[in-house]
Specification:
Blueprint (H helix, E strand, L loop, with lengths): L2 H12 L25 H13 L3 H14 L4 H16 L3 H14 L6 H13 L10 H16 L4 H30 L3 H14 L6 H15 L2 H14 L4 H13 L4
């Protein structure tokens, strides 16, 4: 998942090496991030040195110093993106998002903007929890991935975003199914029906659709809505005849509504 991000960050960093001092020595202790006035090449090289060695948080702090000490340098823009990536590498997602968003607010038309949007989306995506937990982060991931795909549809980042959107939607559908089954077990048929309908209406391309249709058949029959159960079973039979869910719904309709 991090391969594309790492490769892109490396390209950004390599693009700056012609400007920087070759073989620039850096200090190798925590004093790196103390405020000492330094030229831009020294600071940037120090950040790159730490990044190359997987010291992501320290690298982020050093790239932040580039921006702080040389805010009007062309390398301040590059350092912002590298700082966002470094914090992402450190799994400090909040800091990475904030840094990338700050970059986009100041340089919305910069050539690295698609990458910044991608970093933001990945930060949310990698925090998605299992379906038993609150799905606020999942919604934020979906929103960020959709924004990336909408703004930059022809980029490699958008292509990856579209793949991840399928997984995000499947995850959100899974949450609706979990809640629906919870209501169903407690015989709260109307509440269950609303959840299963959400899967059909909003996430119809996910893997959860066949089960959602079957659960609708169960819930409608329990509510005495035979015609609605018949409609759900018909859709299931048309699109998912070879699944276990169709067979279960077929058996239910034969048992509870043989004339339907």
């Amino acid at each position: 998942m991090r391969h594309t991000v790492l490769r892109s960050a490396a390209l950004i960093a390599l693009g700056s090496t012609a400007f920087l001092l070759s073989g620039c020595a850096t200090t190798k202790n925590k004093a790196d991030t103390q405020y000492v006035a330094r030229d831009v090449s020294t600071l940037y090289n120090a950040g790159k040195y730490r990044l190359d060695r997987g010291q992501y948080r320290l690298a982020g702090q050093l790239f932040d110093e580039v921006e702080r000490q040389h805010p009007y340098s062309p390398w301040a823009r590059r350092a912002q993106v590298m700082a966002a990536f470094s914090y992402y590498g450190a799994k400090d997602y909040t800091k990475a998002i904030q840094t990338a968003q700050r970059f986009l607010s100041i340089h919305p038309g910069n050539k690295e903007a698609p990458y910044a949007y991608y970093l933001i989306a990945l930060c949310y995506y990698e925090q998605i929890s299992d379906v038993t937990r609150d799905q606020k982060i999942t919604d934020q991931a979906r929103s960020s991935l959709s924004e990336l795909a909408r703004r930059y549809p022809d980029t490699q980042y958008a292509a990856d975003a579209r793949l991840k959107l399928d997984l995000v939607n499947d995850h959100l559908a899974g949450k609706e199914m979990e809640i629906g089954r919870f209501y169903e077990r407690r015989k709260l048929w109307l509440a269950a029906t609303l959840r299963f309908r959400t899967v059909i209406d909003k996430y119809q391309t996910t893997t959860h659709t066949p089960e959602a249709l079957h659960r609708l058949v169960e819930s409608y029959l329990s509510l005495g809505l035979v015609d609605e159960a018949k409609k759900a079973a018909a859709v299931l039979g048309t699109n998912y005849r070879g699944t276990q869910w169709y067979q279960r719904s077929y058996d239910l309709m034969k048992e509870h509504a043989p004339a339907a």
